[in-house]
Amino acid sequence: MAKTSSNVTRWTRDYVFDILKDLGIHYIFGVPGTNEIPIIDGTSYEANGVKYIECLHENIAIGAAMGSARMTGKPGVLVVHVTPGIAHSIGNLFNAHRSEMPLVILCCQQQNELVTQEPLLASNLVELAREYTKWAHEVRTPAEIPMVLQRAFKEAMAPPNGPVFISIPWDFTMVAIKDTDKVKGVTRISPHFTGDDATIRQAAELFAASQSPVIVAGDAVGYADAWPELQELAELTGAPVVLQTFSSVANFPNNDYHWQGELPGSQGAIQDIFKKHDLAFLVGFGAQAQLAVFKYSDGPLFPENLKQIYLTNNTWDIAKNYYGEAAIFGDVKTTLPILNKYVKAKPPQGAAQRNQAMKDMDAERAGKWEAYLQSAMKEEKIWSVVIASALKEAIEKRGLVDKYVYVHEAVSDGAPFQYYLPLGTTGAKPISYYCVAGGSLGWSMPASIGIKLEQTTVQGITPQLVINAVGDGSALFYPQTWWTAAHEQLPILYIITNNHEYHTLQVGLQQVVSAYGEAIGYHWHPKTMDPSYLRLDAPIINYVSLAQAFGGQSGEKVETPGNVKAAIEKAVDHVLNNKTSYILDMRIAQDTPVTPTDTSKIVREAEINKHYFMQPALDVFHSDGLTAQLAKEAASRTNGNGHVPANMPAIF
């Protein structure tokens, strides 16, 4: 370490910028605090090539860093402020952990000599972050900062990716160092490693013996940009492809007829899918139990006779819940071609017939969705299918299929967007779709910031048009995101799917009552099936005015389906040609009565749920069984509580 003098030009904080320059990372996200100023000050030097993106809440900062990381494949970097900083970040840290996103979180601890005396804001920061990180560490001495930082970035990028947390006493960041004291670089561990050949051959033999295989595609498929390889396997085996619930990326192209959408969110519906198959290929499948209610008495999600093959780059996700006949530890993109070669030499019987059947089902599905769209256009309020169809048309008309990113947190209405948006092989990539596997609300609006900032992406798309569809309840978690969007002049299209309530929780309540209302030992029923605490109607929130207050963003309220297309066209043109965002408050439900009567509750529920009951299935391969399962679940309900919509994911 150099002695402090008037001509010092480098401090220990500059080790951070050595690494960011080496990796080509250009942003640090955060909420300013006194402890962080030495690091933030480093962004003031043009030579460092790093900009500080100021956010108004740490969960926004980490969410924005996640969006940046998704686009670049490099670690998103943020600086948080002592105990409140990491505590405020936990929601999206959990999302990043579950979605295996590379992050490096730098937390500026209180002065090292004072920490033991329990000063203001100080705590055991490492213990707060440890559960949802690959590695969490507090720096012991300024001398170890370069070693710790190199390890942190190496670990964040090593397969499987994930968040890393480093606590640095803030006085350690200001220690003078020599101009020649620099971090050499960050070790890169290649993600492109193939699985064991003998196990791959074993998997191919299992496919050859299968009469009815199914493929479940998880996030490691999309992260590896492995659409073509998985499409080839689906064609060779005649296997339908379902996606993990709350897929973080588009894990299979939706213009391939094997695509069946995401797994459903109930135990019975999941069971009904897998009971039709004798073999499941679980590829990159980490989020394996994305449901709210599970009973051991109702049996496992996978039937006992279902043979399972696993392939992913994370040993924890291989057979973590059920026994796997073949377990391949390897990169999805580099291992699938080897598996495909062996399967091609000895394909399973009936593949051609299954493929033809799925082509026919795909055509029938398209007809049903078109009829559903036409029905929606005649409704009084807006169904999400109308929004999704208008977005598709606007994107394709402007030639933006490889220049847009759709950020999804319209949790109650995923199916229409997943079906209609151009998330296929005509120019899109897996990262053209952004969601998270964790499900902690408040991920999408912050992510839109980080996504829009990045113009060079790991999979070759350009986020010229960033669209964020978000439920009204989710939008209220971090509306201050709009300040950062305005501050950084980031034009983003925000679509609020506004039904004046926490509708996913309304459906969750139905699930709970269905499972436990008549169960022995429980017999639990709420005071009301329409509780006021799940509604957002007194007063009704003006989202456009809220956005304007945070920075003069433009927008409009849209109340009828006939006005959706024009509003979408206007909004898309605005964000493409201006430096401000645009907010569309889409009214997808009738205004909720302030004091509902029993009769008004039934009418309102029927109105809100109508578009679910009419909505065609995405999973046409299993639709007969799923329809029967939903009828069974509906019949089990009492007191007119309705039933859980078929296309809704896990409820939280």
Automatic annotation (TrEMBL):
Keywords: Thiamine pyrophosphate. GO terms for cellular component: acetolactate synthase complex. Residues 200-337 form the Thiamine pyrophosphate enzyme central domain. Residues 12-117 form the Thiamine pyrophosphate enzyme N-terminal TPP-binding domain. It comes from Chitinophaga flava. InterPro entries: DHS-like_NAD/FAD-binding_dom, THDP-binding, Thiamin_PyroP_enz_cen_dom, Thiamin_PyroP_enz_TPP-bd_dom, TPP_enz, TPP_enzyme_TPP-bd. The keyword Iron-sulfur does not apply. Residues 438-574 form the Thiamine pyrophosphate enzyme TPP-binding domain. This is Benzoylformate decarboxylase. Belongs to the TPP enzyme family. It holds the Pfam family TPP_enzyme_M. One of its GO terms (biological process) is L-valine biosynthetic process. CDD domains: TPP_BFDC, TPP_PYR_POX_like. One of its GO terms (molecular function) is flavin adenine dinucleotide binding.
